[in-house]
Amino acid sequence: MHRSSVFCLLVKSLKIYQSYNFIIFAAQIVDSNMGKGIFHRSELLMGKEVMQALAEKRAILFGIGGVGSWCAESLVRTGLLNLTIVDSDRVDITNVNRQLMATTKTVGEVKTIALKERLLEINPDANITDIQEIYSRDTADDFKLEEYDIIIDAIDSLSSKAHLIQNAVDKEAIFVSSMGAALKVDPTRVQVESFWNVKGCPLARKVRKMLRKWKVNERDFPCVYSDEVLENEGAYLIEQHADDADDKAENGPGNPELLNHKWDHKKASINGSLAHITGIFGMTLAGLIIQQICQEAKIKA
Description:
Helix content is 44%, strand content 11%. With 301 residues, it is an alpha/beta fold. It has a single domain (58-300), classed as 3-Layer(aba) Sandwich (Rossmann fold). A seven-stranded mixed β-sheet has the order 3-2-1-4-5-7-6, with helices on both faces. It starts with a helix and ends with a helix.
């Protein structure tokens, strides 16, 4: 047998072995005394087969701000064990009003580390991988999306969001996406629709235009959005925020190359947002994922 063929066979065997070990690990966690306690109400509702399926899934979440952080919380509380969280920012004081891990005590910490600590307080046996990195066309291949069963888009950046969608729709994974949650107050207007059919959302319109220009495969996937678009009544604060942005930190935790990186400073405009809306967006993303896993488990049964 050719040396390259032997190498490919060994790599394939290793992946199968690792996958088998992970399934065994997931089963042990679900059946452990702690697992039975934490997930008692989840299993009571959904049954053991769904809990096992949820425990075996590998998920990656891009963006852990006002939407993504609540999505992560819901998934881990429900029973997801293997979650990779990706974000480039540190916790800013302006995050405290809506982001799960943002408190006056965590300001300045790397967001992914702060959220990981929170999630491990919920389930110490969860496998949480934190990546402080920017998702972009240049870094996309580093994330190896083909290795995940679930891909979650909660990115703020227009171009990065569009590229993640372009990348994710070609994968077999469950894929869900959130549109903009800013400039909204009415919780009853948060909706779920196929991304290609969303109406009344400026961000969805811009992303669709970009994707169609790139001739992206129009695979159907669920999207959380709201057609409510308000105006910033406190627009006078934007100039003050811009002045504060000029202050540069000299040192801090995490990747030194991202020390003064903030997505807010790259946006064309800063918009107000509230926890009850971003939380609904994030929880709805998690709900869509859990619902699909329930449906898949019933089909297999």
